[in-house]
Amino acid sequence: MAEDGNLxxxxxxxxxxxxxxxxNNTMNQPLLKRHRTLSSTPLALVGTKVSxxxxxxxxxxxxxxxxxxxxxxxxxxVFQYIxxxxxxxxxxxxxxxxxxxxxxLAVENIAGYKLLAVGYYIAQDRYLTGLLIxxxxxxxxxxxxxxxxxxxxxxxxxxxxxxxxxxxxxxxTPNMFGATTMIVKIVGSIGAVAAGLDLGKEGPxxxxxxxxxxxxxxxxxxxxxxxxxxxxxxxxxxxxxxxITCGSASGVCAAFRSPVGxxxxxxxxxxxxxxxxxxxxxxxxxxxxxxxxxxxxxxxxSGKCGLFGKGGxxxxxxxxxxxxxxxxDIIPVTLIGVFGGILGSLYNHLLHKVLRLYNLINQKxxxxxxxxxxxxxLFTSVCxxxxxxxxxCKPCNPLIDEACPTNGRSGNFKQFNCPNGYYNDLATLFxxxxxxxxxxxxxxNTPNEFGMVSLWIYFGLYCIxxxxxxxxxxxxxxxxxxxxxxxxxGRMLGTVMGSYTKIDQGLYAxxxxxxxxxxxxxxxxxxxVIFLELTNNLLLLPITMFVLLIAKTVGDSFNLxxxxxxxHLKGLPFLEANPEPWMRNLTVGELVDAKPxxxxxxxxxxxxxxxxxxxxTTHNAFPVLDGEDVDNGAGTELHGLILRAHLVKVLKxxxxxxxxxxxxxxxxxxxxxxxxxxxxxxxxxxxAITSSExxxxxxxxxxxxxxxxxxxxxxxxxxxxxxxxxxxxRHLLVVPKIQASGMSPVIGILTRQDLRAYNILxxxxxxxxxxxxxxx
Length: 776
Prior knowledge:
InterPro entries: CBS_dom, CBS_dom_sf, Cl-channel/antiporter, Cl-channel_core, Cl_channel_pln, ClC. With 776 residues, the protein is mainly alpha-helical. It has 28 helices and 14 strands. Helix 26 links the parallel strand 12 and strand 13. Helix 2 runs antiparallel to helix 3 (127-152).
């Protein structure tokens, strides 16, 4: 549904008239002649499905019922509300930790038995049989994950982080946090990761944590909601937003066992709105996750988790490495940061092209989505199994305490096709789980473990797989593929430096992974803390910060972050934090002039006029005016804003008056409750109004939000955008600077779609040559 109904896409073309340069125009003059109405597109790609997009109501609707409800709440009810918030935050962390443990155990055991079976046939020199088992198992796991996504929950595809960013920005992403989506995300992640695809479970865990938070806040799935009385406090978008923020932080914490990093990730990457109370609850959620994970680590250390060994919950510990660096190390560390920024922006650019291609393939139908996933899985399996045959066997170093060679599920020196006493370095990186591959390439005090040719093959393959795997119809995360690529060139640079540096090659791999993540995702603070908690080595802090800052700076000079690119591709109306420079030379008055006239209602309105407004428009809200002559604007004032859902509720309950009058406070409380008004009910099709009822009246005053946000018509679009985004609005009323006689007290409504730079450029074509790099 539209925000205010003004979804008129102009068809007239710009006539090419020469006009003054907008950069030199004053704020007091109209910037451009209008040749189009302001357009908006309420459709976006959510998951792999085109969905209708609405905005969320983060603003408090301060009508008479709301005010009475808050005044009448006792101290016990206020305490109950606060206690319920902390209880839900605890449950979000608890359930996210349990599900993350389940996913880790399932992936490690399924992948472990698969690799043991393959290793059994390799030890007998039955390489073809091993290939068939390896490929067949991977295809089967991929098929299960893909069919679940394609048939049951298309929104479970991908990481889900861009949609979470959009939701916390104020965009309602349909079916994104449902129970079916969560279940498919869990099972699909297990299948896709265990299949050896070049994707991680980190992004899906963020999405799973958000789903848990949303389901807890609304009392369960839509069809089976729990109607507990205390849950009524959370039947609003504001509290649900806070819970989903806790869920996203818990997901990152569960993925990396990084509580502080999870909180900072939510703050830096996904959240648009933040406050100190939310910070405490988010940290509490991540603390609960860590307690749950730690408890299961202790259980698994006793051998009760099957093949679950060093992988999964235990990350990439390099705390035993002595970190020493000198002034001469600034040069290679700077090179890692520069390479990370360049390669990260190049990866974003190429992935953008691949995702466009995949979108064309996915549009052809479900069978094409399945075939695409199976094709990627087949290519991945053949490469992972076949490329190690190109590597030369390397002799085991007797000075190393670790077992060499090994043929088990994990291990840092895989024998593969080599004789006893030798190992295959490519098989060590390829024939293992992705977590173990990262752990192997991060291994320290092993300067000659991997040959340069093998590292080049490893880097090249994962660059290709990182591009072609993300975008298929399976749950997938971007963190691990980027870590795999970055660690490869980091280790290569460490090998080239050799004795010229004091930094261990494993630490170079860590820095390389961090730099590529900063170059692609453009995170700094949260990423720095996540890597410190991943590696458990605080001495890496100075050079990690240095590398991240360089990589982000270099990457920002080329293109957007990968999640912003995905947001643009999906068409989600995400509002950026920084307005475009040209928005300061455009006023909100000029913006609303490009829209059809706003439709207003009287404080006491005839039923027929309300029905007409609902039938003929898709407005989500209507300004309510009071005065002697509302039609002509004489002596009128703005009373507030009433939502479409409340008007539908009035019609369904037939709260009509026989005469034109104001109602008493007890009359509205007798008919409506705050809980009822919090529900989104805007289906007007099943409301039948008789001809006699059409002539009756409705008093809109008790249901009207009397404190809507307003801006004067001379305010710049840039300033209005900052206000709109910061407060989390759905509607922003534009009022005249001076209300002349006969003039309406409100001249228009601005919504999210109206403030998007792309939509503004459609209404003001002359601005097209001044648009920013981001919109090209």
